[in-house]
Design a protein that fits this description.
This protein is α+β, with helices and mostly antiparallel strands. The protein contains 6 helices and 9 strands. The strands form 3 sheets. It has a 5-stranded mixed β-sheet. Strand 4 and strand 5 form a beta hairpin. The radius of gyration is 16 Å and the shape is globular.
Length: 186
């Protein structure tokens, strides 16, 4: 909050302030993931949510990422958990894929389900990295840091919301995450 206050007060950004805001977001995401992981059977409050609004809220945390949302759909989900899933995907696109754009497509699919596809324009993932995506506690290149935890937690959260989460990393440019959730209670 202090960093945001400084940014507003100064009326401009600086590399130091940008780095501070990026680090604060990363720490928020790590805390969020850790709390969800620590309560694997914690109750989620499933309610009817506007998928477009949920993505748009999270996109505000990533001002350097152009997020283009097409389509519309309501899903049955937990707002806090769903925003955490989107935050993990957008964070990975920026931090690991160096993406500048994310295209989000929301559409209804068969049997009362809604599909949300998030496709970035980043550098993608090598086949070695693709094999470890979504596994918890995979050592990162920097030694002490771990990668994969965010998508691991996201997959668990989506499953608890009676949905599916999958991704494609072909080794080429871009990374695609597909999320499917129920439209309403069964």
């Amino acid at each position: 909050l202090q960093a945001l206050g400084l940014q507003e007060e100064l009326g401009a950004t600086s590399p130091t302030l940008d780095r501070l805001l990026t680090d604060a977001l990363r720490l928020k995401l790590q805390l969020e993931n850790s709390l969800f992981f620590a309560q694997p059977d914690g109750r989620l409050w499933l309610q009817r949510l506007n998928g477009r609004e949920q993505v748009a809220r999270v996109a505000l945390d990533f001002p350097g990422l152009a997020v283009n949302i097409t389509g519309q759909g309501f899903v049955l989900g937990d707002s806090r958990a769903l925003q955490s899933v989107f935050r993990n995907v957008l964070h990975n696109a920026v931090a690991h894929g160096e993406a500048s754009r994310m295209d989000v497509t929301i559409s209804s699919v068969a049997r009362g389900r809604v599909s949300i596809r998030l496709a970035d324009d980043g550098k993608g993932a090598t086949p070695d990295v693709a094999r470890t995506i979504g596994a918890p506690f995979v050592p990162g290149k920097s030694g002490g840091r771990y990668s994969g935890f965010g998508l691991f937690v996201s997959q668990k959260l989506v499953s608890r919301m009676h949905g599916r989460l999958s991704w494609r990393a072909s080794g080429g440019p871009g990374f695609v995450v597909d999320l499917e959730l129920p439209e309403r209670e069964a």
